[in-house]
Specification:
CATH superfamily: Cytochrome P450
Number of domains: 1
CATH architecture: Orthogonal Bundle
CATH class: Mainly Alpha
Shape: globular
Structural class: alpha+beta
Mean pLDDT: 76
Number of strands: 4
Order of helices and strands: HHHEHEEEH
Length: 202
C-alpha cells in the first residue's frame, strides 16, 4: 500500500508474483530429479556429497546457501555450451585446478543484466534443498522401467525452464527407516549463480 498501488491492482500483482515464483522452479526441480535418477554416476556422486551433512541420529543439517553444493550452485544443471550441449553433465561447472573454468555466462537460467532474476538465490536454495532431500531419502524408478526423456516442444516461449510435455510416472520408495529431522543453517555468502554474482564479490 505504501507504494501507492491501487487496492484493485494488488490482487493482480499477487497473481503475477505466483507465476514468477512457481513458473520455473517446478520444472527446474523436475529436471534435476530426472537427470540425477536417470544417471547412476551423477546420483552416486551427489549422494556422496550430501552424505556429509547427515548426522549420526539421521537428522539432516542443510546449509542454507552455497555450501549445500560445495563445488558450485550450477552443478545440477545441464551443460550450456560445447559439442554435447544436449547432454546432462553434472560436473561441468565444478572448479578444478586441472582444467580451465567454464565461462560463467554459459549458464543464464536466471537471465542477466537488468533482467537478472532477483529471486534466483531463494529459488536455487529451495530447488537444491528439495533435490538433496529426495536423493537422500528416496529411490525413484520410472513406471515401465525405462527413463525415456519427455519432450518439451509444447512449452510456452516465456518459460526459462521448459516443463515436460506429459506427466512422467515414477515409483518412489523410502531408502531407510530413519525418522528424519531437518534443520537449516545460515550462511553469509550467496551462491554464485550468475556471472553478476561472481563479479559483485570481487
Amino acid at each position: 500500500m505504501h507504494h501507492n498501488i491501487p487496492a484493485d491492482d494488488i490482487p493482480r500483482t499477487e497473481v503475477g508474483n505466483i507465476f514468477a515464483i512457481t513458473g520455473n522452479t517446478g520444472p527446474a526441480a523436475f529436471w534435476i530429479i530426472y537427470h540425477l535418477y536417470s544417471n547412476p554416476s551423477a546420483l552416486e556422486s551427489c549422494r556422496d556429497e550430501v552424505s556429509n551433512i547427515i548426522q549420526e541420529d539421521g537428522s539432516i543439517a542443510l546449509p542454507w546457501h552455497r555450501d549445500l553444493c560445495s563445488h558450485d550452485s550450477r552443478r545440477p544443471y545441464a551443460r550450456r555450451q560445447g559439442g554435447n550441449v544436449d547432454e546432462f553433465y553434472h560436473e561441468h561447472f565444478i572448479r578444478s585446478t586441472h582444467q580451465k573454468r567454464p565461462n560463467p555466462v554459459a549458464f543464464r537460467g536466471f537471465g542477466g543484466g537488468t533482467g537478472l532474476c532477483p529471486g534466483r538465490h531463494f529459488a536455487s536454495t529451495e530447488i537444491l534443498a528439495f533435490a538433496a532431500l529426495m536423493i537422500t531419502r528416496f529411490d525413484v524408478r520410472p513406471i515401465g522401467g525405462k527413463w525415456n526423456r519427455p519432450g518439451t516442444d509444447k512449452a510456452a516461449l516465456s518459460a526459462s525452464v521448459a516443463p515436460p510435455n506429459v506427466d512422467f510416472e515414477v515409483e518412489i520408495t523410502p531408502k531407510s527407516i530413519y525418522e528424519w529431522r531437518i534443520s537449516c543453517m545460515g550462511s553469509d555468502k550467496a551462491m554464485e549463480i550468475a556471472a553478476e554474482d561472481i563479479v559483485s564479490e570481487k
